[in-house]
Amino acid sequence: MYKIVEYIDKYNEKINEFVISIYVEEHGFEEHRELIKNDDNSIYSKSGGNLWIAINESGEIVGTIATYKYDYESVELKRLYVRKDFRGTGLAKVLYGTALNFCKEKSFKKIFLGTYDRLETAIHFYLKRGFNEIEEKREKSGARFFKLDI
Question: 102: burial class by Cβ within 10 Å (0-12, 13-18, 19+)?
């Protein structure tokens, strides 16, 4: 079981450790370790977006998702991560639904996101939810960009 809570500063270091455990250690993005280690997760709420954390009964972070306000009508979806033992439980859908409801309540019209080819499960998740790839935004680094009109 878990509960979804909004970001507060006391979680900052734990969120960074959680993201590193998945993005760097599980998926091999070692070059991003130091950047993530020093991230200030309050940037999401300061931008006009938000960050949510799924916490289990033991108080451990088991999932995250964030929105970063890009402009008056658009947000970027960030930090959708779920701990391995919570994958397949519907947690990613709950986190995504939380972020999507927030976007609708705030009258955003578009959600953008970037991800990488090696994150196939994430790409499948986004495509299944109606995101379309923005081909002209594809980077040489392998980053792929997607958009959803809401």
Answer: middle
CA 105 to centroid of chain Cα atoms: 18
Strands 2-6 and 50-56 come out as antiparallel
Instruction: Summarize pLDDT for 72-103 with one digit per residue, the tens.
Output: 999 999 999 999 999 999 999 999 999 999 99
Residues in the chain: 150
Q: Tokens 């658009």 correspond to what residue?
A: 74
Q: Render the burial of 51-90: b for 16+ CB within 10 Å, e for the rest.
A: bbbbbeeeeebbbbbbbbbbeeebbbbbbbbbbeeeeeee
Provide the token pair at 35. Answer: 């950047």
- Contact between 113 and 76 (Cβ < 8 Å): yes
Tell me the pTM: 0.93
